[in-house]
What does this fold into?
Amino acid sequence: MNTFNKMWGVVTPEEALDKINEQKLKLNRPPKNLEEQALSLVGKDIYNKLIKGYTEKQWGRDCKNLPSFIIKRLPLRFTYDNNYYNDRFQGIPYLGYNELINNLTKDIEIRCNVNYYDSREYFDHISKKILFTGPIDEYFNYCYGALEYRGLDFKNELYENSNFQGVAVMNYTDKETPYTRVIEHKHFNFGTQPISYITKEFPCIWKRGDNAYYPVNDEKNQILYNQYKQLADNNAKVIFGGRLGLYRYYDMDKTIEAALDMASTEYKYFNTQQD
It folds into this structure.
């Protein structure tokens, strides 16, 4: 409601809803693209102010050229609660993800700076199962062609003051600002340090050899991924996981949930094999 109030001067949820319904794109057919989908859900003001610029800079293409299913729904909250999420519970590991990963892997042999592809035969020989979280097209040597991804560049900056932006994450929805968001890390753990580190995230064109961050799940790439998935389904020794292995966008909570489900399934499988 704070956003609606600043945008239109409305005060009540009913006034805001009336404004949105007045602006919605009326379609008698399924939306052809992301722009039509967004306009049919939230109307032109919210689309132009909060969605269009951010989405086009995130994906590097016009919203008219993006599939409608990228935005299946746009949750609107008609309250004065500025919280970003609707989840009942929110949180991050108390000491951060580094400490979580350290504890999860403390009894596991870890080899750094090792390229799986350089020693593929060796690792395939010593392993009963392999969990692969890299790009699935790379695993199969791009035999059907390369999938598309979006890349990210990160710019870290140090500020000699205790509070740069007052919040952990600030999103920039306009197209003119080259970065999508600024992270001020200390606010995740309520830091009180006299200085502050921030990170700016810049979406960029991805090419082979770069780190891939976001699968481009348009129709063309989805068809190509399905071909790789058939190969993966016939490879019983390898588990493909994560954003790149499954060519799917995952939030952190869904990533952890998927990992726990996979571990539970594999644990049952190994117990069955040993019985």
Observations:
- The CA atoms of residues 242 and 258 lie 8 Å apart.
- The two ends are 59 Å apart (CA to CA).
